[in-house]
Specification:
The chain is of the alpha/beta class. It folds into two domains: 214 residues, 3-Layer(aba) Sandwich (Rossmann fold); 70 residues, no CATH class. The protein is built from eight helices and ten strands. Helix 3 links the parallel strand 2 and strand 3. Iron/sulfur cluster binds next to helix 5.
Length: 293
């Protein structure tokens, strides 16, 4: 087995373990490269069919290509696709940068609160109806007690503190100092009632691993990751007003892999183009403690 085979095998093991141990789980799909690789792994884990609902938190500010790519793959791969959003804040027009909310407050509402309330079923969820080719209000309000997330430990500081199976309390709060140890591939999957668990099958993958796997498996990626002739591409995707591309002429997966191997970005954080990661030192960890992905 080579390096990618070992990573794949462990991730598939965790996905199967999660599916067998938790009653009502979903998988977060941001449409970025990591969660799309995770979705690909889930298709492998369950022989082509993904038996887990895919949840997308739509801030409504996502770069439009991302939504097109989401719906294209949802159709092609017959995914059980759900999205949720903070309809009240959006209707009130309070969002950053035009509205009165600061950057972190806006993320706190459109991402963290939207996620929390989509997962617990308090807010509307919209489910893709494959027969009608449209999203419809979902009558199922049952809370998800486990959520599979494509976070990687090397992505930024707070993610490196996660476990493969990371518990959150009833309020979705994360106690970083009180997490179960995970030695020798032994994972704690038995938690007290009311615990909400985040499952991280990609924790050990690096950015280069992800791109080499995309290259090997020929996984379809949203075009934003590639230069379209302007000498820029996105290294990490998010809301259009708050995400900056990097200088790069890599226009194919092979070129992205080659570029990463040069070490060009070795001293630049992968999420450097994401404004919320830079705010008030430790801002992202505070958001994550409160439920942010
Ligand atoms: S990334 Fe920007 S637009 Fe998106 S939720 Fe955060 S502040 Fe609002």
């Amino acid at each position: 087995m080579d390096h990618l085979d070992k990573l794949e095998s462990r991730s598939i093991h965790i996905l199967r373990e999660a599916y067998s141990e938790f009653n009502n789980i979903c998988m977060l799909w941001s449409v970025g490269k990591d969660s799309t690789v995770m979705l690909w792994l889930a298709r492998k884990a369950f022989f082509g069919h993904v038996p887990i609902p895919l949840v997308h938190i739509d801030t409504s500010y996502m770069i439009p290509e991302m939504i097109k790519h989401r719906d294209k793959l949802a159709k092609e791969w017959r995914l059980d696709m759900i999205y949720g959003q903070d309809e009240e804040t959006l209707a009130a027009g309070e969002t950053f940068p035009e509205g009165k909310l600061s950057h972190l407050e806006c993320c706190g509402r459109l991402k963290t609160a939207a996620l929390k309330n989509t997962l617990n079923g308090n807010w509307h969820r919209y489910r893709y109806n494959h027969n009608k080719d449209q999203y419809e209000l979902d009558s199922n309000r049952e809370p998800y007690t486990g959520v599979i997330v494509g976070a990687r430990a090397d992505e930024e500081g707070s993610r490196s503190k996660e476990r493969y199976f990371s518990p959150r309390d009833r309020n979705n709060d994360w106690d970083i100092g009180d997490q179960p140890p995970e030695f020798w591939d032994q994972y704690k999957t038995d938690f007290a009632p009311g615990t909400h668990v985040r499952i991280h099958p990609l924790l050990d993958w690096t950015e280069l691993d992800v791109w080499e796997y995309i290259q090997r498996e020929k996984i379809p990626m949203v075009s934003l990751y590639f230069d379209q002739g302007q000498g820029k591409r996105y290294r990490s995707l998010g809301c259009a007003p708050c995400t900056e591309p990097v200088e790069s002429t890599a226009s194919t997966v092979d070129e992205v892999v080659a570029e990463l191997k040069t070490g060009k970005f070795a001293n630049i954080a992968e999420r450097d183009g994401r404004a919320q990661d830079k705010e008030d030192g430790g801002g992202l960890e505070e958001l994550r403690k409160d439920g942010y992905m």
